[in-house]
Design goal:
This is Class III extradiol ring-cleavage dioxygenase. Belongs to the DODA-type extradiol aromatic ring-opening dioxygenase family. By secondary structure, the protein is an alpha/beta fold. The longest helix has 20 residues. The strands form three sheets. A six-stranded mixed sheet has the order 5-2-6-1-10-7, sandwiched between helices. 48% of the residues are buried. It has ten helices and ten strands. Helix 1 packs across helix 3 and helix 4 packs parallel to helix 10.
């Protein structure tokens, strides 16, 4: 069986599934560029715990972790099954790596999980295991989560980190609501940040990437909190020692909210 790539997705808001956008188009065609996975392990920025948790739920429900969006979004269902046996394997692998995981017997799919999966794998016939982030831990810790699970790639398991390459909602929401214009200086700060990441990933500069808060330009402006960037470090670590990073998608919402996604081979 061919080794699977790993994937980082900038998942957007829940309305990505109903609004036309380049990011939606990318996700809808994503499966055409991948071997069919036998299962998916996904780390969502919207699944936060103290330490790392693994969901063992055989039939996850839905979590509509958002407000003020179109009513139809609250009626959508992504009925992909869980896979408790794989979840137990994930739990064991994380434990063997010294990461002290916990189990969560019941948890539904938050929008960081179900919206990209609904677009990329709409048949919902691939089992999914969910793994959490811990916003109190750093990039190196989330990278270690990925490294611990990297062997699953040889077994047809697709490892996905679902977050966002930039995530300054304090700037995004006023522009979306029409109350202010996008700040050209902010757009320049986004450009600098995402291009720094693209360059360091292309160079394979792991040390710089794991030290992003100190080295990346305008880090705090692009990520006032860290949780939405942590999934990229999971995906990067899960791809092995020296992966090739492919910038598979790059688009913007309102000129400054970046949707970069990466495949790691």
């Amino acid at each position: 069986m061919a080794s699977m790539p790993t994937l980082f997705i900038s998942h957007g808001g829940p309305d990505i599934v109903i609004n036309d956008s380049a990011a939606r188009d990318y996700l809808e065609t994503l499966s055409e560029h991948l071997p069919r996975p036998r299962a998916i392990v996904i780390v969502s920025a919207h699944f936060e715990t103290n330490g790392v948790a693994v969901v063992t739920d055989p039939a996850p429900g839905m979590i509509y972790d958002f407000g003020g969006f179109a009513p139809e979004l609250y009626e959508m269902v992504y009925p992909a099954p869980g896979e408790p046996r794989l979840a137990e394997r994930v739990f064991a692998m994380l434990g063997e790596a010294g990461l002290e995981p916990s189990r969560l017997a019941e948890r539904g799919y938050d929008h960081g999980a179900w919206t990209p999966l609904k677009l990329a794998f709409p048949q919902a016939d691939i089992p999914v295991v969910q793994v959490s982030v811990d916003p109190s831990r750093d990039a190196a810790w989330h990278y270690a989560l990925g490294r611990a699970l990297a062997p699953l790639r040889e077994e047809g398991v697709l490892l996905i980190g679902s977050g966002h390459i930039t995530h300054n909602l304090r700037e995004l929401f006023p522009v979306m609501r029409g109350g202010k214009q996008a700040d050209p200086e902010l757009a320049a700060h986004v450009d600098a940040f995402v291009e720094w990441f693209a360059d360091k990933l292309a160079e394979g500069d792991r040390d710089a990437l794991l030290d992003w808060k100190a080295q990346a330009p305008f880090a705090s402006e692009n990520h006032p909190t860290d949780e939405h960037l942590m999934p990229i470090f999971f995906a990067y670590g899960a791809a092995g020692e020296a992966p090739h990073a492919e910038r598979a998608h790059a688009s913007r919402q309102l000129g400054f909210f970046a949707y970069d996604s990466y495949l790691f081979h």
